[in-house]
Design a protein that fits this description.
With 258 residues, the chain is α/β, with parallel strands linked by helices. It is built from nine helices and twelve strands. The chain has a six-stranded mixed β-sheet, with helices on both faces. It has a four-stranded antiparallel β-sheet with strand order 2-1-4-5, with helices on one face. Belongs to the ABC transporter superfamily.
Length: 258
């Protein structure tokens, strides 16, 4: 496996105190890395730094062993895709037009979609199975359907790394499972790619993530294989809950608060 992104000693703040404290991590090719933790742990802030939306106060970042600051923005945008919270949009655009926006880093104001663009878009639509939504205006779709379109837009870019911030939030169970299955299948079919996903649902994290980072108050307090990070001790200490866990079934069920 290859390290797609390496981060070392990242710190970040808006005011006092630090929101992120000495964060170090590697994102390896072929894996789905989950970032979990209670509200306010710094998960979304970290993802935005990895996506180059926010600049860290201190620390270093590399993409495929090249420092971020040495990578031209268009080149970075071809390799790293960010799926933000509440990504579904209400634009008055046809679904296929929204998906085609994923190819924007390869376009300028005067170029039409190339054969390569068309191929990538069709591949993305096939991967997510949303052919039946083509021709519809995205604002007319359900929340789950909009998220599938947003994910298709990301897939059409063919990035090395997908950064997804709570992609299952506010979705019904069917679409939660479908979105995570698609992200997992994407990395399995493209072993030189990876995905980093911020999640609150611990069962989804247990079922679909190869590795986890557990964040608490701006720090990574546990990292590694899913079962070790989601230990009873960690859940009690950092989530303040008791859980019933069955990792073979991908189940982490909160029982009560401590």
């Amino acid at each position: 496996m290859t390290a797609i992104i390496k981060a070392s000693n990242l710190c970040w703040k808006i005011n006092q105190p630090l929101i992120l404290k000495n964060i170090s991590l590697d994102v390896q090719s072929g894996e789905v890395l989950g970032i979990i933790g209670p509200n306010g742990a710094g998960k979304s802030s970290l993802l935005k730094i990895l996506a180059r939306i926010t600049e860290p106060l201190t620390g270093t970042l590399t993409l495929l062993e090249k420092p971020y600051q040495e990578i031209e923005l268009r080149s970075f945008a071809k390799q790293v895709a960010y799926l933000e919270q509440n990504a579904p949009v209400n634009w008055p655009l046809l679904v296929e037009k929204v998906i085609a926006l994923g190819r924007s880093p390869y376009q300028n104001s005067y170029t039409k979609l190339s054969k390569e663009d068309d191929t990538a878009i069709k591949k993305a639509i096939d991967a997510t199975g949303i052919e039946h939504l083509l021709g519809r205006v995205i604002s007319s779709l359900s929340q789950g359907e909009k998220m599938l379109v947003a994910l298709s837009r990301i897939f059409s870019l063919e990035p090395k790394l997908i950064l997804a911030d709570e992609p299952t939030a506010a979705l019904d169970p069917y679409h939660q499972l479908l979105i995570m299955e698609l992200l997992q299948q994407h990395t399995q079919k493209n072993p030189d790619h990876a995905a980093v996903v911020v999640l609150h649902d611990l069962s989804l994290a247990a079922r679909f993530c190869d590795k986890l980072l557990l964040m608490y108050e701006g720090e990574i307090v546990s990292s590694g294989l899913t079962e070790s990070v989601l230990s009873d001790e960690n859940l009690r200490e950092f989530y303040k809950i008791n859980c019933y866990s069955d990792f073979q079934q991908g189940l982490v069920q909160p029982l009560n608060r401590i």
